[in-house]
Amino acid sequence: MLSVKRLKQIQFLKTKKGRLKEKLFLIEGKRSVENYILKSNLVEEIVISDSEIGYNKPIIDLCIQKKIKLITVSNKIISKLSDTKTPSGLIGICKILTPGKIDLNAKRWLYLHKIKDPGNMGTLLRTAAWFNIKNIALSVDSADPFNNKVVRSAMGAHTYINIYQKMDINTFIKKDYLLIGADQNGKSQLENSEYSKKIMLCLGSEAEGFDRSFKNNLDRLISIKKTGQGESLNVAIAGSILMNEISIK
Questions:
Q1: Across the strands, what pairs with 71?
Q2: What domain range is 237 assigned to?
Q3: How far from the centroid of its chain's Cα atoms is residue 152's Cα?
Q4: Contact predicate 176/155, CB 8 Å
């Protein structure tokens, strides 16, 4: 049973203000919920529709095993909590952990400069996790990394990575990082000897790219060689290609 007060508290988490205040965010769907429970200790509570109970015994067993609170509600209530047109019937409430001390010795970092599209941000976080880039820095004016759409696109990446918000690029300049920025007009490519260095891959706003002052901080502007047709690559696609290139094999 979910009280009216608790319903409103959970609905509040669909807003940035609510997430900041409560230090909680929402996940949705069987695959996502199961992944978060298995791979992290972030899940505090699960809300499931009564019509889905019979189809989710493994998740219910996991909740019992990990002592995660499980609340059964009607489909109508799930619809009020869901952020999708077709609710899955399963919602998790997770902790937003304050990341630990910044690791300025990590060999690879990803810096997202004013990335505002939630889908692109989520895909970039998911790709970073895939290529074992565990530390992500976000500039001011970037999308909220715990936005519901970001979390859905990230597909569980939040359980693997450290996200540092409102980061100044100067933090990394002072620590001898090779700052490379993706730019479709970039002329340079990385040299073989540079892959052994500490690298910060910087990706800019979908609409604006890097402003002049930010570009002045970069050591190199690199591009992805075009072998076919098209005007440009989506930032999430370009970032994925470059993360593959700089990943430590």
A1: 47
A2: 108-246
A3: 9
A4: no
Identify the DSSP state of 61.
Answer: H
The residue from 53, 69, 95 where one domain ends is 95
The total of structural domains in the chain comes to 2
Which residue in the block uniquely carries the two structure tokens 């715990």? 146
For 199-226, how does the pLDDT look when each residue is reduced to its tens digit (9 = 90+)? 999 999 878 889 899 999 999 999 998 8
Q: Quick one: tokens of 116? A: 């505002």
Residues 52 and 144 in one domain: no
> What pLDDT is attached to residue 248?
86
Burial of 204 per CB tally in 10 Å (0-12, 13-18, 19+): buried
Which amino acid is residue 97, in one-letter code?
L
H runs (alpha helix) in the chain: 4-12, 16-22, 30-39, 57-66, 75-81, 118-130, 148-154, 170-173, 212-215, 235-246
Same domain, 188 and 120: yes
- Report the side by side order of strands in the sheet with 178-182: 162-164, 135-138, 108-113, 199-204, 178-182, 220-222
Q: What mean pLDDT is predicted for residues 26-33?
A: 95
CB of 243 closer than 8 Å to CB of 128: yes
For residue 129, give the CATH number of its domain.
3.40.1280.10
3-class state of residue 93 by DSSP: strand
The span from the CA of 227 to the CA of 119, in Å, is 26
DSSP 8-state assignment for residue 94:
E
Mean of all residue pLDDT scores within the chain: 94
Spatial contact of 92 and 36, defined as CB atoms under 8 Å apart: yes
User: Domain holding 87: CATH number?
Assistant: 3.30.1330.30
pTM of the model: 0.94
Domain boundary (64, 95, 126) is at 95
Q: State percent of the chain over pLDDT 90.
A: 86
